[in-house]
Amino acid sequence: MNYKITGDNLQIVTLEIEPNEKVYAEAGTMVYQSGNINMEAKMRGGLLKGIGRKFTGESMFLTEFTSAGGTGMVAFGGSCPGTIKEVELKDGREFMVQKDAFLVAEDKIELSVGFQKKLGSIFFGGEGFILQRLSGNGTVFIHACGDFIEFDLQEGQILKVDTGSVVGWDSTVEFDIQRVKGIKTMFFGGEGLFLTTLKGPGKVILQSMSLSALASSLAPFLPNRQSSGSNSGVAGTILRETLGG
Questions:
Q1: Domain extent at residue 183
Q2: Per-residue pLDDT tens digits for 131-162
């Protein structure tokens, strides 16, 4: 399977699928496809795995794509401004990602439910209790808000990250939460009360901005129905006075 990732902050990934190949994707992520691509919604793995995917933020049904009559083309995009990254899995490698990060994968990749192992990570990690576990042999594409930053942690190497900024990590990486030291730093440092601690070995992928941070930064600029109504009332009064009525 050949692929090409295009774009800057609104990326899409275009796959070339041969007749003997199959990929599957989260429902609603397909952007365009050639005329010889067939797609079919399926509950991969049965009802229990479908319910498990629902808990991770995905739909119970995933869409499978195959090609008929030669090489086909199909493109996928994320649901928010951000970046797409390919992750190659082989030799038993497993990769954990935040919920909603999965985009599309080859048929031999298994998408299943993963869980936070430590209590602090569950409540303060910013990723929630349920994660997505990716395993198998092949290529999977993930998507998240902002740009990606990658680290290859060595044995025992520690990386401290703002909660919610971690997109994915090898299952060999130890994920934990630590409280920020110092009362003033905790309450006035602007970084929250906790930091995510990642301990190698393994690859870690971070995002430059989380979706929640993006939403918070845009919230003050979104129109408010009540305020917009009062503004229009003031505007109407000024207009009537100007027109002499």
A1: 2-213
A2: 889 999 999 999 999 899 999 999 999 999 98
> CATH code at 152?
3.60.160.10
Count CB atoms within 10 A of the CB of residue 49: 17
The answer to whether residues 94 and 135 touch, using CB atoms and an 8 Å cutoff, is yes
Specify the long-range contacts of residues 30-35, CB closer than 8 Å, at least 24 apart: 30/63, 30/65, 30/74, 30/75, 30/76, 31/75, 31/76, 31/77, 32/74, 32/75, 33/65, 33/72, 33/73, 33/74, 33/75, 34/72, 34/73, 34/74
* Interatomic CA distance for residues 222 and 187, integer angstroms: 27
How many C-beta atoms lie closer than 10 Å to residue 8's C-beta? 8
Residue-wise pLDDT for 78-112, tens only, equals 988 899 999 999 999 999 998 889 999 999 999 98
